[in-house]
Amino acid sequence: MAETNRQILLDRLPGADKLAPEHFRLTETPVPTPGEGEVLVRTRYISLDAANRAWMQGATYRSALEGGQVMAGGALAEVVASNASHLAPGDLVFADTGWQDYAVLPGKRLSKLPPMTPMTHLMSVYGVAGLTAYFGLLDCGQPKAGETVVVSAAAGSVGSIVGQIAKIKGCRVVGIAGGEAKGRWLVDDLGFDAAIDYKAADFKRQLRELGGIDVYFDNVGGDIFEACLFGMNLHGRIACCGALSQYDGAPPPHGPRGIPGLIVTKRLTLKGFVLYDFEDRREEALTALKGWVESGQLKVSEDIVDGFENTPAALIGLLAGENRGKRMVKVR
Ligand SMILES: NC(=O)c1ccc[n+]([C@@H]2O[C@H](COP(=O)([O-])OP(=O)(O)OC[C@H]3O[C@@H](n4cnc5c(N)ncnc54)[C@H](OP(=O)(O)O)[C@@H]3O)[C@@H](O)[C@H]2O)c1
Fold first, then answer.
1. Beta 302-306 vs 38-47: how paired, if at all?
2. Helix, strand or coil for residue 164?
3. Dmax over Cα atoms in the chain, in whole Å?
4. Are strands 148-152 and 172-177 parallel, antiparallel or unpaired?
5. Which pairing describes strands 92-95 and 102-106: parallel, antiparallel, or unpaired?
6. Is the Cβ atom of 245 under 6 angstroms away from ligand 1?
7. Most buried among 61, 85, 222, 268, by the most CB within 10 A?
8. Cβ of residue 155 lying under 6 Å from some atom of ligand 1
């Protein structure tokens, strides 16, 4: 075990600025000792999520982050010492460790994960990304074979799985992502039917030419949400998963046009969801996801950045669109 605990602090909140390296600071403290009922874990892979940035803006489904704290975040972690009877050294857990080598957590909040090779799949397809894609698309989107499904942030961790599940369900799938290279990857490697670059000057025209949308899986909000809203078919469904176009910078000056008029005239359903609402159906989703991965229908895309000290840059890069699939940092 290392002598010290490296920690990355969110030194100060970015406010309406873009997230930058100077918002973080590396420090070292002694390795903590677990008390009664507590567990000491060592982080192996830190999860990078667009939500990390959203938490800096105010309370979401978790309380707002404050400057000076260890940067919050989930990680795949290994138990080092345990005062909880259901966990032993060597067990793997997914835990809210924050960005640090070691964390002490209440044992009752931790569940042992099954051993898996590679273990990173526990944080991508069998973790938050896969489960969010599964429940958001199938529960909120209700796609039917032959329908057109459009997903934004399509080359990201959630979006890349959403599109593939929609294909498995017999839908026509269009991904929206930044840049031609990502679009080619979605079509050639992941089997999407088409991809549109939202940074292209004629993005809206390209979207219109692809025809009406039955299900829109919205990861981004803002202008892309608005463009898709105008393209929805009668009785279309919009699964509202996140608003990452609005996480990193000043809030937009106005909301999307077309609300509520288009919702009424097109009889649309917009449904927001948070993954934690589906805790009791976790096994159902994992069984389905495993079946698709094992049959080769669902490709797992992971983007692993090496080195704990690179975690801030990895998050800043994710917000700028560097990643394909699930981004995480290998701590050691
Ligand atoms: N509801 C839930 O329970 C739940 C759970 C997990 C995640 N989420 C949400 O799921 C969404 C995806 O998150 P993630 O962590 O998986 O991130 P991600 O999709 O892996 O990565 C973010 C991607 O978003 C794209 N992006 C960045 N700025 C954008 C903008 N202004 N407009 C359009 N696209 C932009 C970038 O790709 P480009 O190159 O394409 O720009 C980037 O690669 C987020 O909204 C997150 O909050 C929700």
1. unpaired
2. helix
3. 64
4. parallel
5. unpaired
6. yes
7. 268
8. yes
- The b/e string for 72-94 (b: 16+ C-beta within 10 A; e otherwise) is bbbbbbbbbbbbbeebeeebbbb
pLDDT at 187: 98
The H helix count followed by the E strand count for the chain is: 9, 15
Q: What is the position in ligand 1's atom list of the atom closest to the CA of 177?
A: 40
- Reported as a single tens digit per residue, the pLDDT across 10-28 is 999 999 999 999 999 999 9
Q: Any idea of the CA torsion for 250, 48, 324, 193, to the nearest 10 degrees?
A: -70
Tokens matching residue 187: 């079509």
**Residue 3 pLDDT:** 81
Distance 324 CA to ligand 1 centre (A): 11
CA distance 163 to 217: 9
User: Ligand 1 in contact with 137 (CB < 6 A)?
Assistant: no
Count, residues in the chain: 332
* 153 C-alpha to ligand 1 centroid (Å): 5
For residues 254-277, b (16+ Cβ closer than 10 Å) or e, as one string? Answer: eebebeeebbeebebebeebebee
pLDDT tens-digit readout, 240-282: 999 999 999 888 888 899 999 999 999 999 999 999 999 999 9
Q: What pTM did the predictor assign?
A: 0.96
- Over range 156-171, report the average pLDDT: 98
Q: 91 falls in which pLDDT band (50, 70, 90)?
A: very high
Please identify, by atom number, the ligand 1 atom nearest to the C-alpha of residue 50.
Answer: 15
What integer pLDDT is reported at residue 154 of this predicted model? 98
